[in-house]
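Please, structure for the following, as tokens.
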Amino acid sequence: AVGEVIASNHPDFAVGAFVSGMFGWASHAISDGTMVRKLDPAQAPISTAVGVLGMPGLTAFVGLNDHGRPKAGETLVVGAATGAVGSVVGQLGKIYGMRVVGVAGGAEKCAYAVEELGFDACIDHRDPDLAKRLKEACPKGVDVYYENVGGATLEAVMPLMNVWGRIPLCGMIAWYDNSGPMDGPDRLPKMWRTILVQRLAVRGFIIFDHYDRFPAFVEEVSGHIRDGRLTYRESIAQGLENAPEAFLAMLKGGNFGKQLVQVSEDPTRQSAP
């Protein structure tokens, strides 16, 4: 706002510097510099620091590489394929020489995954024949399933998992708002047996344990962006007051790409006076 005075008492952060950190939903924050990184607007738009070149991108990179252990020629299935994490997972899979099949909500997102992100196929998770469509798209079974949704997608993927398959587990969007018992029979015994018989490696991970991988991630992924091998998309809601609504909509698939909330003008995109 007009008349505000921003100061810095930290020697590493000058007034006017662009930074990224875990500050919460706020228009202003105070930090001692811990877990804060400087941004270079000349390298990439500052919005990418909370998207493709931030925590979501790191989650995709670590989950696929460290826990998915991808190999060229294998089949990778990605849930929430056009989201901030899934879109990077799938594009990295293609760069690594994998067959990539996405699962997303709606024809528009599925078309985007194939036509813009380069996936080999993408299935609508709302399709009543999801399991059949997914099996058709994965004729050699599934070697890596990047799990961030749970629900019907997980149920469709599990019977297709190959022996020694890997499942990096970073989320379960379909179940976050469950308030009571799930409908239908208990599917856990069948899933547990599949994990045993197929000798699957299911690895849950929280990205805050892996920030030591940030330099390697930024070096590789920023290079792919510069080379045009990896692209991204953002959904931007305006105003801090709209953050809760945007967050809830994101959990139900209302976003397209990384969901952001813009709380002020972006000075790096303003035209010169």
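Residues 55-68 form the longest helix (14 residues). The mean pLDDT is 89.
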